[in-house]
Batch of 4 targets.
Target 1
Amino acid sequence: MPSSFKMENMPFSLLSEREQRYLRSSLDIGYYQAGEIIIAAGSVPEGVYVILKGRVGESDVTEEGEEKQEQVFVHYTNEDYFGGWSAIRGKAIHNFIAEEETICHVLPTKALLELCAGNSRFADYFQQSLSAKTEIQAQEGGDQDMAEFMLAQVKDGLIREPLIVVEGTSISEATVLMREKHADCVLVKRGNRYGMVTGTDLLDAVVIKRLELTSDVAEIASYRIISTTSDDYLFNALITMTQQHIERVVVMDDNQLTGIIELTDVLSYFSSHSHVIGLRIERAKTIEDLHEAAHGLNDLIKGLVTHGVKARFAMDLIAAMNGRVIAKLFDLIVPVDMQPHVCLIVMGSEGRGEQIMKTDQDNALIYRDGLQWPGMQDTMQLFTETLISFGFPECPGNIMVSNPAWVKSIGQWTQQLSDWSYRCEGEAQMNLAIAVDAHPVAGNAALFKTSRNWFMRHLQNNDVFFSHFAKASLEFDTPLTFFGNLKDKGELDVKKAGIFPIVHGIRAMALQFKILETNTFKRIEALVEIGQMKEEHGRELAEALALFIQTRLRQQVKRIDDASDGVDQTPNILELSALDKMERDLLRDGMHIVKGFKKSLTLRYHLGG
Amino acid sequence: MIIPRTIRKMKERMDHKNGPYAHLFAPYEGDEVVSLDCETTSLNVKEGEILSIGAVKIKGRKVMTSDRLDIKLKPPKSLTGDSIKIHKIRAADLVDGVYMDEALEKVLEFIGNRPILGYYVNYDVRMLEKYLRPRYGFGLPGKAIELSHVYHDIIKWRHVGGDVDLRFDTISKCLDIPMLERHTALGDAITVALMYVRLNYGDPPKAG
């Protein structure tokens, strides 16, 4: 068919021009009435169907007595394709039924197989699971970040303030100064020239050349300094460093020293200043310093997203960063003599290390039984307020250390957990769900571990509890029907439809098998390892979750950019119209996986009926 | 026409009973239909010359776009001015076109004795026959199916009285069939084929 068939859509865009011509010449067009079965389960499909106009539902047929029940789990609309997998296997396992009048292009199986044989990436796309599809898509869009990297300039925030000493400074003085300022090189001014002394130079001077600690650093400095300008491309600086086997380049503008750039900084530019921000957090000495560093995190997130870093890795990084901000603030605010007696924990998504945009702070404090600290609540109030000023939004459920209900001794805390586990109403279950994702970030982690271990022992073999607990993951029903209405509704609450069922179901299983990890991805890995989940299922589940988070993140970043006040009012809503065909495809496959997972939960915890 | 078409056809059948083209006159037994469309320089059969021929087979409810005919002819002398504005085919587009003899051979082989479907199909049939008769001594043998008649019969049956709008665009809209490449011979042939399948197998359309 000439031009009505869109070659730009995946996976057909993977084909070469010659293969696309072959594909065009092999296409037929089929017409189906509403309600007509296009491919019946068990039959041999004619090939891959690509919808030109209309809507098709894929459904499972389960025969219950005399009544046939059909459960539609995927809808296909314009430009979607279906039946590819069935065609390759030679037999369909589901029914494909036209839900309205439908016109499809049909690519016969023979042609499909020939194309697959000639193009391995095209074949992979058809034959493999979601994770492979994501991989192929990721490779397709992979060139962009390289281009951005190439265009970055030296002045894009990588220049460090140099540590300058005058001629006559002794080796020991220089070393002390470097330690104090956390610098690993020092510039020595001798007349009008600068010389560089690195940590290695100092070591060589003292250990190998056996110079006195009082000798002048100007004697051991290297005056052959390689320099660049601040508007040069960062890429050129990297080439210079590689060619000259050096790790630092001095930045000179109009013969004036501006600063130094280091190899590690240039390399970590790929992870978008994460290294630099990490250092700034570590170096913060006052709350104001920390405040500035914390605000840099938003740019970091944006950078990571535009650089196409996978959500899962970005989450790890952000979780580490947020954890460091909180821990640092704890150090600055809580008196040193109290620190060993209390433990600050973060919970919910923060505890799982799964938030990317700064989400509500969910935190609590556990203190040693019988601790006397009159100023505790005031300090905690200050702690929460400072975090809010850093841009961590207030928790609407008031799960914060400023709320005395979340500042407890070990005894009270464990009692609270066990109370919740006996109550089946919503709030207790929700609190419990938040609390079991707890993760210690500052203070004495042993306090937290004691209570957690006690609680896990306490739950052992309590099947009724697990059954109740897991039930919540089925609460938001049939996301695929929801998704099927995509054309009409135009948006999808991805948290209810996809993220929550996975996270909560995995949480219940992790709790049952005493898995100490709090991150959902790591929990899945652990469950696979102990044989409670098939490796293949685990991988698909993780991939689906990553996909939901990534898709959500991309829209969040966009909304924050568009909003005048920089606040995203509807963080969990996906606008389906903003997704392209490929992304909708992936989302649908992901929902399919969620559906399967829910089914397995129903069986495992006897939630049916 | 002086001699009625049916009589002329009977005569042709008799004449070619034992010739090399006898199979074209055998009554058709299968379930296939050929949708045919020509782009020409004029809508007047006497003046017009063919620029391109597109045809596609319909089997049951499937349009076999993989089994199709897409012929471009050498640019004729009358390819000028107004008609170019409609079909947007210039002489330059037809440089690698084929000669009429070759084209007709292909058309006959493709159609065989199948029924021919088209929109104002008589025009296309007479256009082709203008070239066929001098060379072969017979016209297109198959039965002609007029799309607008099929449409009209269904619409009229549902709405007694009143005029039925038979314009191509109206039918396409009413049947909710996407128009694929309007004014190329093959594109129009496929669109017509889809309309035909839609009329034969779908629910009756609402009157436009």
Target 2
Amino acid sequence: MGASRGPRLSGLQKQVLSLYRGFLRAARCKSAEDRRQIESIVSAEFRQNSNQVDRKNFVYIEYLLRRGKKQLEQLQSPNTESLSQTKQS
Amino acid sequence: MALRRAVLDHVRVPVQTLALTGSKQRWSVLGSLRFMSSHDDHLTKEEVIDRVLSVVKCFPKVDPSQVTPDVHFQKDLGLDSLDNVEIVMALEEEFKLEIPDKEAVRIDACNLAIEYIYNHPMAS
């Protein structure tokens, strides 16, 4: 194993990536069509926040993490079929 | 209350539970071809390298001609950390593994992925 050349991740970044991984794992348990839809929504949301949220805005990022964890719990329920996108006002 | 609203806005629970259609079984005839082989069914290094590289090359944002066994996902291929997660997840599926978070964050280059998978007893 060579030494990693990548940038060191902060604890908060690790949590975000872990949450992203969790969503992609949860999506695998859904039907093929729902899975594609979930993946595209989740990926768009994470990417949008990664571009728009100030990386020093810890309070807001922690809020997003908490919200994301709740959403993931809902998604992991077998009764949840898919996500839908709504704009937050 | 605002949080609850935000969560409810994002989650839809179906009224009826529909039959799952997409859960196709992966078991193929390969299993029967492996009759009486208990030792030699571990992947060869070459096979691991080939399959890792082909997964990375198939990633939409990657230029396949740039992919080599030494390539670093973020530094050499211009991917970000979210792409990195997606690639590791794709490798999990290809090799039918579950890579724990702690290991997954360390896999940020082809050679690390190849090492990890080659040394994993469950890779197939």
Target 3
Amino acid sequence: MSKGLNLTLKVWRQKNTLSKGEIVDYQLEDISRDMSFLEMLDVLNNRLEKEGKEPIAFDHDCREGICGACSLFINGQPHGPMKGTTACQLHMRSFEDGATIVVEPWRAKAFPVVKDLVTDRSAFDRIIQAGGYISVRTGNAPDANAIPINKKDSEMAMDAAACIGCGACVAACKNASAMLFVSAKFSHLSLLPQGKVEEKERVLSMVDAMEREGFGNCTNTGACEAECPKEISMDNIARLNRKWLSANSFADV
Amino acid sequence: MLDAKIPEGHVSEKWDKHRFKTKLVNPANKRKYNIIVVGTGLAGASAAASLAELGYNVKAFCLQDSPRRAHSIAAQGGINAAKNYPNDGDSVYRLFYDTVKGGDYRAREANVYRLAQVSNNIIDQCTAQGVPFGRDYGGYLDNRSFGGAQVSRTFYARGQTGQQLLLGAYSALMAQVHTGKVTLYPRTEMLEVVVVDGQARGIITRDLINGAIERHEAHAVCLATGGYSNVYYLSTNAIPCNVTASWRAYKKGAFFANPCFTQIHPTCIPVSGDHQSKLTLMSESLRNDGRVWVPMDKDDKRRPEDIPEAERDYYLETRYPAFGNLVPRDVASRASKGVCDEGRGVGATGLAVYLDFEDAIKRDGKGTIEAKYGNLFDMYAKITGDNPYKTPMKIFPAPHYTMGGLWVDYNLMTTIPGLFALGECNFSDHGANRLGASALMQGLADGYFVIPYTIGGYLNNDLPEVTTEHEAFAQAEQAARDNTERLIANKGNRPVDDFHRELGRLVWDRCGMSRSTEGLQDALERIPEMREDFWKNVSITGTSGEFNQVLERAGRVADFYELAELMCRDALTREESCGGHFREEHQTPENEAKRDDENFAHVAAWEFKGDDAEPERHVEQLEFEEVKPTQRSYK
């Protein structure tokens, strides 16, 4: 059995939204390579609690890479070094013995820090409220097979719908733009016939909401796509831009 | 005797007649009623959205930073419906029959029939919302098979069905937030139900960001707060999943039904070490193509690839030729435990069996298998470091779902008038064992298609005006404050998780896949001691007036101790084996579960009688008019 990892952790600690934060160093010994990154933090927190010190606050929920709660900026990358992987699915076998690991919260004006590594991402909910849905009341639906949908379109819609709303795209972007998130939801709905009906209103109101929330503009640098744990494509941004342009350019006749 | 208020008539007519007889709330009056929905998973989000669409004023609460993160999101495999699109013999009646049988005849027929009836509406509704279900090349919806059924009735969105259904319900909820009919309270935990003159009229909550304790008034309260598998510490549930809301309701007078009915899912990734914080499910759909086996010889330590066909024991296929690898979950889990108990388990701990895709890859090609299960294979590889395309997966059973929960009548109302329970947090429709792809169906059935009708019948009673100034609110608030302060004042030196892990191990050993009189009695002695130790020695850092995850966890673990005791008590009293409840004293010569229909064809519903008193066991007799109980056979 190989010995575990010895690590130096540099973690952002911040008491609450209004207080000033700082990086605090922690030494960890004999960390199993089979642990997930969050389990490594559990081990540290367990130690801190035994010492009567406050553990590090971080968001986590399903720990299966699907809920989008985890939001750690690890060594300068959202969710850390492994491509297409959330922090909860990142395992310590991705790190070398003796490594120094810097852990920070998402950094964006629209995602204020709540405590330590926890941020407030309710801006995403408000963008969805602006139009990230198909207006069909319960009971209104026709038979599910009434409208056949081309398999390729359906698969592309699913690719976009796989977004977990974690905010890694915003954290990765130098402009803190939410375009990948917004365009993924827009594309998911737009690629389906059911979603066509409200397409124009949707694109205008979601983009407006995004701007209101204080996210930056997209300058096509592509960091979002590179860091997205669900590998959502930037093609969605192109699709949104086309629709937004035409929605703004042509009259309803 | 508990009155389940099951409507008269043949099972196929009950829901129709009931809807006709239930009084309606006039559209203009709906805006006069406030409804609280706690939890925003499939049941909660669909209920909140649908009730708001009808015109009620809804307040929706969740623990997570966004309603979209509720744990329904992690459901992988699919959702059942009786559409019969594949033309393979399915019908509402067959779905009903399979579910009653799958639940080992411990579910209420009338509820299950209604569930099967509305299953088709769910698929229609979700498709209209834009849920990208899997389709065939003609553009029509595709189906896959799941355990406990011989028809293909499961709709899916890759391996992320729960995510897509939840995002559909969430989007409907967000649309209603936009209209102003729903007010959203994320990062808010319910601590008490407020009961005024015997009726549920509100809740007390804690704002998880600043610790503020708040009062919320309503004409009715719906709990959709999920299951309690985390009593085992290690389970497939999300870390924050808890019993607190249901438990506080129980302590206010809502009966808790069949707490010992828990589901141990057969296909999960085995434990790798003590650091393990949770277990990850590998969807049951994998059993469509994967073959489960262990070596014939318990001393066979060869790599699985090197073990020849003749020296492998495909024990599910041999023992259950009719259903093979697709037997229901309780049967599959118990069989895996059996071969591991014989010493034939594999992997470092000996607590694992193989799930092998070699034959499927040979038959259908790697591409086909990748298209079906790619994301599951990737997830497995990330967690274990093994490549399941090359070497078999290792799997082992893990706690996954709880069939027990708050007792509800046909209207989904608990024994507290005005308090409803939806989805996994009620005891509902799955009897003693839930079939795969039925949880999503039940959550959405309750939220979209049952509660919007039944709640009107209750609201039609003359409900007095009540404000949050009422004495009952003050008392409930004080109770919540006292409990929180009692926890925070505790300055022991042992972390919450250590206590939780210790409790979980005991419950797993004594009230997990296999239960015995001796083990349960031992647990009933030890749990109160462990609870006392917790209250003496737990370390809780920080204060109650801030974001404090330790305090949150401590409050939930405190409730798990009490629940664990009730589970063991229920398991001990139920002197039979059925579904997921396997009492060693009650088994057939082939080691299958042996029911006692004469004495136990009933729901056991427990009434809280005070902290120092034993709870009282009530009985709801189950009548089987359509599906006659027989020894369940999947051979």
Target 4
Amino acid sequence: MTATAYALPSIVVFVTAAVLIVVGAIGVLAVRNPVHAALSLILTLFGVAVAFIAQSADFLAAVQVIVYAGAIVVLFLFVIMFLGVGRSRHDHVEPLVGQRPLAAFGVAVTVGGIIVLLARSHWVTGATSASGSSLVKGTGNVHQLGTAIFTTYLYAFEATAALLVIAVVGAVVLARRERATEEAE
Amino acid sequence: MNVPAAWYLVLAAVLFGIGAYGLLTRRSALIMFMCIELMLNAVNLTFVTFARTLSDIGGQASVFFVMVVAAAEVTVGLGIVVAVFRRRHSTSVDELTEMKG
């Protein structure tokens, strides 16, 4: 495979990630309803995860989806619902015209893309991919990152444990103290 | 060959700019937190791009720590938002003027 043969898949991946990121980011600013803004934020976070995979940061892409989209955005949505900020706007049954045909089209494109990828076996085996080579030959991304974190950055890693405990305690204190004063009143 | 690193850097810069614009213009504390997340993600993308370009795993390790700090920041920040909302029934940062000099 020559260099030009790799160029097109990587360009397609980059354009996909760029569209996801920019559209989601503009959506966060443009949308009035905070719930929709949080959903746009998920779009951006997935685009960043795609960009991570395209640059051989596999573990960080997984963490991006699990921690950001799975935990932080859910926390955002929980607070939005808890505060009732978006309660004034009621969702209609079908606010977007042609939502169902567009959804069917998107699902068809996704499934078709997966089938096309499966048909090209070298993408499945990872012999060649759009992501290019890993940072160091012979070792996986998770192996390299784990080695770096548990050797070079061990003290910083231990400090993050303390930071997370402090954050959890701080969040609990912030929530409880207000409730105690309300009961006192 | 992968696409040039400059493309990802420009994309990260655009993302950071959008996040900074939203942080400066919006007045809802929740939206401002989301814009901070956008800016953190832009910086993460820059870190990963340079880790790929320079073949140094340290950039990806930095992203790992940025994610941990972002999680802690969102936890405490949203706790503050909830505490402020209970007292004032609003998330607008313009109404928090008690410490105005």
